[in-house]
Amino acid sequence: MSTICPALKRSEQGYVCSLNNKPVNPFVWYCVGNYVECPIYVSNKDKLSEAPREEPQEVRAEPKPAPPPEQTIIPLASAPEVKSVDVDEGVTSFIDAVLSKYEDYVRSLDSEWSKYESDVIGGRKSWEVEKVRLMEHLNLINNTIEAYEKRLKELDVRRMLGTIPEEKYLELRDNIQAKIGKLSELSAAFSSRLRLVEEGLKTHMRRIVSTSTRPDAIGVRYALERLENLVMEGRISRELYEKLKAELEELVV
């Protein structure tokens, strides 16, 4: 049996494989010596049995530069057989467990975010209602302070007119000033806490406006972008911008 592949042909351009009509280098492919392992030969050898046999032409090595001394030619080895490998059940169980864990986690976050949106909007509505009564009570404190300040002025006038003894004047003045001081501290503390609540709710509302997929939030977000462009272009003042921005954020209901 010849060691040269019967499908190897020589043409003017070089060597050609007659099985696929493509150029081939017989010195680095299977053509010489182990052509029976060639995948092209194996898959098409029936064609060779049907075709008229021709004596294979002698393969003559074409002259080429001598390789460096350390270079060696390693013959191509046949491709190793691929064996089927069963996947251990523990591998699939681990993958399923980790994915299930974080799928549940994402669903939990979605649920919590939806609840967060509802809580913020509901809390804002409740605050707007109760803030009316809160301001009425805060105004009562401020009105009382103003009333005490008027009494101090009246007391000073009575002193100037000599209609009140000095000792009595000092007693009443100190008493009124103490009440004014105490009520002023309460008013300042309540007003500061009120501002913090307002700012906190606005922060949460802005967060919803900027991220929510609710139709009203998307509309407000688009309007805020246009408003931002107007102030950047100098077409409206910063004061008007802040006022309109606050009004737009109140539209998310």
Number of separate strands: 3
Task: Give the low-confidence spans.
Answer: none
Rounded mean pLDDT score: 80
Rg is 47 Å
Based on secondary structure, the structural category is mainly alpha
Strand content: under 5%
Strand order of the largest sheet: 1-2-3
Q: Could you estimate the helical fraction of the residues in percent?
A: 55-70%
Largest sheet data: 3 strands, antiparallel
Per DSSP, the total helix count is 5
Tell me the number of structural domains.
Answer: 3
Shape: rod-shaped
| Helix-strand pattern | EEEHHHHH
Distance between the termini: 90 Å
In short:
The chain has 253 residues and is mainly alpha-helical. The protein has 5 helices and 3 strands; from the N terminus they run βββααααα. The chain has 3 domains: 1-62, no CATH class; 114-211; 212-253.
